[in-house]
Amino acid sequence: MLSLGIIIGNRDFFPDSLVEKARTEIIDVFAKLKLKPILLDSTDTKLGGVETYKEAQKCADLFKAHREEIVGVLVLLPNFGDEKGVADTLKLTGLNVPVLVQAYPDELTKMNVVNRRDSWCGKISVCNNLYQYGIKYSLTSQHVSSPSEAVFQKDLLDFVAVCRVVKGLRNVRIGAVGARPGAFNTVRYSEKILQRNGITVTTVDLSEILGKANKLTIDDTVVKQHLEAINAYAPKGKTPNEAMIQIAKLDVVLKEFMEEYALDATAIQCWTSLQQNYGCNVCTSMSIMSENMLPSACEVDVTGTLSMYAMQLASGSPSALVDWNNNYADDPDKCVLFHCGNWAKSFLPDISIGTAPILGTTVGVENTYGALDGRTPAMPLTYGRISTDDPKGIIKAYIGEGELTNDPLSTFGNRAVAQISDLQGLMKYVCRNGFEHHVVMNASKTAAILEEALSNYMGWEVYKH
């Protein structure tokens, strides 16, 4: 259960009763949405509202006591509210978390002195002060809305998703397993720019991983356990038992590496060292990790797995790294998304363990067992990509929404057909701005959440298609 701090603004020449009603209402809404409210008691200040500097101090002290659990702050304005009280509270907390500003609507039949709110105007004043203080904030989709309304509750849940993304990205730890494949300049990135943004990369040489895996045997209990888990995850098809054991041993070592360094995600060298020096693909392990919300990208695409993690945080569901791979006949707004076979199981209802035919032409198909085969059916689509732009010294991203379709597609590997409005314009943007051939897909509609989190709070350069 995620926790939000709540500031209820008040202003003494507006009706106090509105503050008391707002406090009761928002507590009920939080219970309904399974959120934990951190707010002043009605006896801590006048009805639990914040107006004076002393009340701001009390509210800030409460938030500080819960600083480890508060992921964001909701500002409620049941009346005009005191803009300084709200801004001072946020400044004193030093929390640096997302802030959502809400304002109650007035009723045309209750515009007298006893009932009039003027929150429409008060919200502008509060935002003006937050802007002056340098405090980042989010807005509801409608300028005024009541907490009991569905439109506000959707705004609140979207805001919570923004908070998840921001908190996650500011502390994410990514494991880079092996060296970037020599032929893949496209996945270059800057560790230093990422670190400046709170994103830590832990590296390990692929030889260390393979060396540990080669010391394991099927007689090791942990290998047997992982083999059972892999067999339960996906049908092995024609994959030989020896290859399944190889996959399981590698899976054991990767899990140990992630646990040792408390990693949230990984980017793994695959093409072509694993096949040549170990004799299998790591796709199945990557799929299992991604399905279990520990995203994994191939070709040491660190910013690719960072993109997977951001989308996962926004939606609460697994992401997949894909290639912008092929045109779809002559339809300008459709294309084929593809990868050898490492997508999370959620995208592959017909999943099976097989080989990677393209890679097999150079390393031998027998050395590519572990790649997954499966077609992604129609589902919602959010796509996007985070990248470090070293010449500019920034992190940049593009995001958008579309649909995955059931259009016919006769090929192998992990595959899907995407339909995106003005796809040709998007491809021009991707090419002109030096983005990678890898993109990330998620079965959701979360582009607005990602834009708010990445642009407003992370301060990155974001293009929303």
Straight-line N-to-C gap: 33 Å
CATH level-4 homologous superfamily of the largest domain? L-fucose Isomerase, Chain A, domain 2
Order of adjacent strands in the largest pleated sheet: 10-11-16-15-14-17
Tell me the number of helical segments per DSSP (H or I, 4 or more residues long): 15
Kindly report the CATH topology of the largest domain.
L-fucose Isomerase, Chain A, domain 2
Could you tell me the mean pLDDT?
96
Structural class: alpha/beta
Count of DSSP E strands?
A: 18
Radius of gyration: 25 Å
Largest sheet: 6 strands, antiparallel, barrel
What share of residues are in beta strands? 15-25%
Number of domains: 2
- Tell me roughly what share of residues is in helical segments: 25-40%
CATH class value of the largest domain: Alpha Beta
CATH architecture title of the largest domain: 3-Layer(aba) Sandwich
Uncertain parts:
none
Quaternary organization: single chain
Pfam families: Fucose_iso_C
Protein name: L-fucose isomerase C-terminal domain-containing protein
Keywords: Carbohydrate metabolism, Isomerase
Domain L-fucose isomerase C-terminal: 337-463
Report on the structure:
It contains 15 helices and 18 strands. The chain has 465 residues and is α/β, with parallel strands linked by helices. It folds into two domains: 3-169, Rossmann fold, CATH 3.40.50; 173-464, L-fucose Isomerase, Chain A, domain 2 (3-Layer(aba) Sandwich). The strands form three sheets. A six-stranded antiparallel β-barrel has the order 10-11-16-15-14-17. The protein has a five-stranded parallel β-sheet with strand order 2-1-3-4-5, with helices on both faces. Helix 3 links the parallel strand 3 and strand 4 (99-101). Helix 2 (53-65) runs parallel beside helix 3 (83-93) and helix 5 (150-169) packs antiparallel against helix 12 (302-315). It starts with a strand and ends with a strand. 50% of the residues are buried. The model has no long low-confidence stretch (mean pLDDT 96).
